[in-house]
């Protein structure tokens, strides 16, 4: 299995509090991604990174920010959590490859509940 | 909006039977990928088919791609109870240079022993 660790695995917090999720990889892959998975929506891309300090928005980026100060770590922050951000969050990584023909490897997810 | 639409949403079969799942997408692609997700776990990559390929095999998996119809199918032959999972198709757009995937909503497969 690809070396991807997400932390925490579960978190319950209150509306309005800041939350940071961490994704750590040991594969030295260039690309890292954050997705959320919700019933009826599949997986949707929040933000992604194509290198240290290089990030960009995905499909559902409102209310989220990211940072990547080291190759191995990609942080997802909810500055002020809302109930609509209750979801399962997945981190994924991929190598740089020709024509983007590289698969993504996923962590086991963080289940976040915002009350 | 989701790129891929999968059909059926749910499928229940007996062990030993074949399972076929279909995926349709809307825009031109660089490649299409299939992933499996067991309950409570992350997604696992199964197979990648490039836009210039029509068919690909991996063990008991067979994937076809019809770019003229913007559709793909995943066939699992001789299914086993361990194949019970959700299956997702995902596409990389032809204009993408970052490998961003756009996922369908998935097909839930139950294989009864």
Question: How would you characterize this protein structure?
Answer:
The complex is a heterodimer of chains A (115) and B (113). Chain A is mainly beta and 115 residues long. Helix content of chain A is 0%, strand content 57%. Chain A is built from no helices and eleven strands. Chain A has strands at 4-7, 10-13, 19-25, 31-38, 42-51, 54-57, 64-70, 73-78, 87-94, 105-106, 110-114. In chain A, the strands form two sheets. In chain A, strands 2, 4, 5, 6, 9, 10 and 11 form a seven-stranded mixed β-sheet that branches. Chain A is globular and about 40 Å long. Chain B is mostly beta strands and 113 residues long. Chain B is built from no helices and eleven strands. Chain B has strands at 5-7, 10-14, 19-24, 29-37, 43-50, 55-58, 61-66, 71-76, 85-93, 102-103, 107-112. In chain B, strand 4 and strand 5 (43-50) form a beta hairpin. The radius of gyration of chain B is 13 Å and the shape is globular. The N and C termini of chain B lie far apart (37 Å). Chain A binds chain B through residues 4, 31, 33, 35, 40-45, 48, 50, 56, 58-59, 90, 92, 94, 97, 99-109, and chain B through 2, 4, 30-31, 33, 35, 40-45, 48, 50, 88, 90, 92, 96-106.
Number of strands of chain B: 11
Q: What does the largest sheet of chain B look like? A: 6 strands, mixed
What Rg of chain A, in angstroms, do the CA atoms define? 13 Å
As a percent range, the share of strand residues of chain A is: over 45%
Question: Which series of helices and strands of chain A comes N to C?
Answer: EEEEEEEEEEE
- Which residues of chain B form runs of ≥5 with pLDDT under 50? none
Strand content of chain B: over 45%
Q: Count all strands of chain A and give the number.
A: 11
Largest interchain contact: A-B, 30 and 28 residues
Structural class of chain A: mainly beta
Number of helices of chain B: 0
Secondary structure: helix percent of chain B: under 10%
Q: Mean pLDDT across all residues of chain A, rounded?
A: 93
Average of pLDDT of chain B = 92
Order of helices and strands of chain B: EEEEEEEEEEE
- List the uncertain runs of chain A: none
Q: What is the straight-line distance between the termini of chain B?
A: 37 Å
Structural class of chain B: mainly beta
Query: What oligomerization state is this entry in?
Result: heterodimer
